[in-house]
Amino acid sequence: MEIDRELFLLAFRNLKRQKLRSYLTLLGMVIGIAAIVALFTLSAGLSLSVKEMFEGLGVNVIFVEPGSDMGLSTAVSRSIEENDIAIIKGIPGVEEVVGFYETAAIAEYRDKEMSAFILGYDPNKTKYVAETGYLKLSRGRLLEPNELYSIMINESFAENALEGKTLDLKQQILIEGKEFRVVGILDDSDAAFGNFGMNNMFWVTKDAARSIFGAEDPMELFVKVSDEHLVDQVKEKIEEKLERAHGEKDFYVMTSETMMESFDNVLGLVQGILLLLASISVIVGAIGIMNTMLMAVLERTREIGAMKAIGATNSRILSIFLTEAALLGLAGGSVGVVIGYLIAFGVSVVAQGFGFGLPIVPDPVVIALGMLVSMLVGMASGFVPARRAALMDPVEALRYE
Fold first, then answer.
1. Could you give phi then psi for residue 390, rounded to 5 degrees?
2. pLDDT tens, position by position, for the chain (401 residues)?
């Protein structure tokens, strides 16, 4: 145990003598490990946040969207029709169907114009809309049936989107030349499920969306199933009946579980790509450690010869340089872990500022793996220089100038 302690002290002193070179060597490793830790931490936070949203919805919900596959054509297609609501409502096991009527418009407030995303719904179905995670009132009230010129806005828009001009309850805002009165302001924390931080979302009634903004048909449907065990059966029926009504399958149907699976698949793909990019920095760090150790071996050739002359074995010399390389990697990994978490916390704060909850929870496994990987990379990078030092002839080493 004493020998090991002596080994680490010797390696630490040798690195301390080369402060600047050691710091520069750490840079690549620090960047790589920081990127990897930040990536995994943010991915875990994003996954947790989305999972909580879907759990809030429950397992007995189905979404019907336009397009041939998830995420395709939803921005431009209106393949969902008004009478699809009645068709789906007639399927056994369906408790309620909520249509969302979406369009874009230009809003004006105190001579300032802005783009607005209009989202209409039936106020009679407020209970079910609230279950989607959209509606959590901060102040004011929710929309009532038959209201045409009332709107609800997100809290972040009311406070920040107008360059210092606060938009509050009972104030008027001009949309497409018509005056709308703000009756409710929604908490951003729940609005995040549907818009992922889009703060310029204006809520109106279904009647207003159809008669004023021309959104005749819903853009998407939210289907609440009475029993979670009927979800797959109802999903199949929806696909069968809508395809027959449309004459083609110009829509897709997703349960909350399949949406979560799709999200995990996309997240996994993105993680893989970003991990590959971050690994490049680790490789650069490994090359830096190898270069530093090669230079150290050259500079300390006579020292190595002296150690061998007084009885140091090849394995002892090998251990000294491998320990130095391991300490370089470990130091870079430790700093990288700290910086990675700082980056993750910074991104989380910014995301929360935009109304999207992104919880960051330090993971001991990620911390341990980050430090272990950096240490192993350091040892692997230092093996060739360490072996070269260990195999030196002591006589030739002592003669080296």
1. -65, -30
2. 344 565 656 555 655 566 555 666 777 788 888 888 888 888 888 888 777 777 666 678 888 888 765 544 444 455 788 888 999 989 999 999 999 998 888 888 777 778 888 999 999 988 888 877 778 888 888 998 888 899 998 887 777 655 656 677 888 888 888 899 999 888 765 444 444 446 678 899 999 988 888 888 888 898 988 887 888 899 999 989 998 888 888 888 888 778 777 777 888 888 788 788 778 878 888 888 888 777 777 777 787 778 888 877 888 888 888 888 888 888 888 889 999 999 989 888 887 776 667 788 888 888 888 889 888 988 888 888 888 887 877 777 666 65
Tokens standing for residue 256: 């909350």
Give the closest residue to 191 by CA, choosing from 180, 202, 183: 202
Cβ-contact 90, 66 below 8 angstroms: no
Residue in the block written with tokens 């946040």: 49
In 21-84, beta strands by DSSP E: 61-66
CA distance 157 to 139: 14
